[in-house]
Amino acid sequence: MNVVPRVCTICERYQKIGNYYGVPACCACKMFFKRAIADNEMTSHAIPTKSCRMQCRECRLFRCVEKGMFIIPESTFNVNNYDKLTSLLVNLEHMQVVRTNKLETMHIFTNPSIEEIAWNGRPKFEKRPKDMTMDVTEWSFMCGITAIDYALNFPHIAELAVYDRKLILRNCFFYLALLSDALRAVTNKQDSLSFPDGSDVIPPNTDEVSDELKKRIRITLVGRACELQITKEETYLLSTIIMSNPSVADISPAARKSLETNQQIYTSALFQLCQAKNGASGPSRFVDLLSLCHKLENTQACFGYLSMTCAQNRNPVCMKKLFDH
Ligand SMILES: [Zn+2]
Ligand SMILES: [Zn+2]
């Protein structure tokens, strides 16, 4: 292990640095992260302020997660290692906190394509000005790019070859964004798909598209998610299963193998969670959750039809390169 003194990615002190949980860090930060996740020592999720500068535990943990520290599950889950599942869920919860914080308070002022992100790594976020107007284009873009940033926080996605990473991100980011929107709708007791500020996901001036199609976009997924009352833990695991899809066309055999292994791990985690929370009806809960994927596909297809129809009428819905094919 490399022990030449360097600056720790987390605490920024000059220390002996090793590669811990995927990030060049000092031993103290490694131990801090391990205790926070594996021992679930921290239950509060305070969002760091600029003035704090890492002085509190919340900021330090936020930074660990933001910089990509992740305790990789090493094997599939079963009834005998439920404690490992608990720490995975704690880790995923902290990742979601980082993602939500970026979506609600940060912005990206460039217009990268998925290919550019696959080459250059996770995008750089900046503070969103308080008076910035968020329209459908900006919200769609931010929901999409925070989903991509979230996926790249997983080592098995970040470590894919550039070409594979591009295909995997393109395949999953819209689903991840939709699933997160659906969870927010369930949490906020809304019956329609909307952006974080509650605004409608359908752009104005789209009269050329039928109300029936718009209705399907708004309620197909959310309606089912509300019926099932999906929980955040279920959503985190389902998202990870979706991003680890080994069936995406044209990926390399090496990527396929790695994704397959990871998808099995997260699928077993979801199954164990269903068993633990639902007892005898665990298996049917598991099937119900996986069937949400059809609603995701359906909603994405409707969005595709909407933007295609509007583009034909010289009324593009979203000018961001993220959504290019
Ligand atoms: Zn450190
Ligand atoms: Zn702080």
TrEMBL record:
> TM segments?
none
Domain called NR LBD: residue spans: 81-325
Name the domain of life this protein comes from.
Eukaryota
Keywords from UniProt, A to Z, are: DNA-binding, Metal-binding, Nucleus, Receptor, Transcription, Transcription regulation, Zinc, Zinc-finger
* Molecular function (Gene Ontology), one example: sequence-specific DNA binding
Claim: Lipid metabolism is one of the keywords in the record: no
Q: Boundaries of each Nuclear receptor domain copy?
A: 5-76
Identify its protein family: Belongs to the nuclear hormone receptor family.
Q: PANTHER family, per this entry?
A: NUCLEAR HORMONE RECEPTOR FAMILY-RELATED, NUCLEAR HORMONE RECEPTOR FAMILY-RELATED-RELATED
User: Which protein, by its recorded name, is this?
Assistant: Protein CBG15506
Organism the protein comes from: Caenorhabditis briggsae
